[in-house]
UniProtKB/TrEMBL annotation:
The keyword Signal applies. Residues 28-163 form the C-type lectin domain. CDD domains: CLECT (cd00037). It comes from the Eukaryota. This is AGAP007411-PA. One of its GO terms (cellular component) is external side of plasma membrane. One of its GO terms (molecular function) is carbohydrate binding. The keyword Methyltransferase does not apply. Gene3D superfamilies: Mannose-Binding Protein A, subunit A. InterPro entries: C-type_lectin-like, C-type_lectin-like/link_sf, CTDL_fold, DC-SIGN_domain-containing. GO terms for biological process: immune response.
Amino acid sequence: MMKPQTLFLLLLLTALQLAAQDTTFGLFRQKEYYFSSSFKLNWYKAVEYCRSRGMFLLSVRNAEERAAVIEYLDSTGYTKTHKGLIAWISANDLGEEGEFHWASTGERVNYQNWSETEPNDYKIDDCNGEDCAILEYWSEGGANYNYTFNDRFCGREYLFICETLPA
Ligand SMILES: [Ca+2]
Ligand SMILES: [Ca+2]
């Protein structure tokens, strides 16, 4: 029969090992974020503003990066005092209609995290469709507006999120 102290030590060691193995979280935590919770800019100015802080307009390239930014946004308390959230991210199809890329990394947008029926390139007028993406959350919107993407007119002013990118 094992002594209680020995058993306790074994359990503690196992717990420590499990904690050490959980590195996925640490990896995407390498990003730092900035959320402009109090002022709005158009998409181009949001890109410039992030660069002026040594950061980039947000990219959300996979489920892990989405989870990380949601955790960050939750930590700001913004969604506790607001019913929803709309913020510019760096996805855009300015270069070629329908071909979305992240301005921050140059990568193609492969992560299928669009709100239903988006991107729809909705025509504002005869000249302008929607070429820049927002991250949208609506507390009463269910899965469809749950930190998903939507293309909007780049000249509109919204809040925005900056990030650092791991080297
Ligand atoms: Ca478009
Ligand atoms: Ca749209």
